[in-house]
Amino acid sequence: MLMDVNAIMKILPHRYPFLMVDRIIELDQGKRCVGIKNVSINEPFFQGHFPGHPVMPGVLIIEALAQVAGIMAYMASDEETKKKVSYFMSIDNCRFRKPVLPGDQLRLEIETTMHKRGIWGVSAKAYVGETLVTEADLKATFADSAANSN
After folding, report:
1. What is the pLDDT of residue 149?
2. CA distances (Å), 40 to each of 47, 57, 102, 145, 148, in order?
3. Which residues in 101-138 are b (16+ Cβ under 10 Å) and which e?
């Protein structure tokens, strides 16, 4: 394990219940990153999605992938960029292939496809075991936080 949740919280501004990464297990700076999200029945979204048939919302799987991408980009950035926060720019070619259920462990794999003028493009894939459950192409950039822009 490269990063536990305490190290992750030093990088990402997210906190419970919106922190979606439990650990980072691989990091090839600026190129590839792999994170883990343990999906527990205690997640607050399972109360309403769906009662009697709990399924992790697809948008939260995308958020977990984006958080791993943010960690990878942060680790490859200079000190000035590290003072900023990452913001989503686009989600393309998104496919939800299998439902993610309580007790599953998501392996969140990110690979850089482009990095130009402060914009990061990544190929993002989420697996449960060897099964691909979600994939998408994501783009994001770093900017001043909304709290610092007023």
Report:
1. 56
2. 12, 13, 5, 30, 34
3. eeebebbbbbbbeeeeeeebbbbbbbbbeeeebbbbeb
CA distances 122 to 15, 20, 24, 92, Å, are: 23, 18, 17, 10
Contact 121, 69 (CB under 8 A): no
Q: Any idea which residues carry the catalytic annotation?
A: 49
pLDDT at 52 over 90: yes
b/e sequence 36-58, b meaning 16+ C-beta within 10 Å? bbebeeebeebeeeeeeebebbb
Token representation of residue 12 = 């990402």
Per-residue pLDDT for 32 more than 80? Answer: yes
- The pLDDT, as a whole number, for residue 1 is 79
DSSP 75: H
Query: How far is it, in rounded angstroms, from Cα 92 to Cα 138?
Result: 6
The whole model's pTM is what? 0.95
First to last CA, the chain: 39
For 80, half-sphere exposure in the C-beta direction (CA atoms, 13 angstrom radius) is: 1
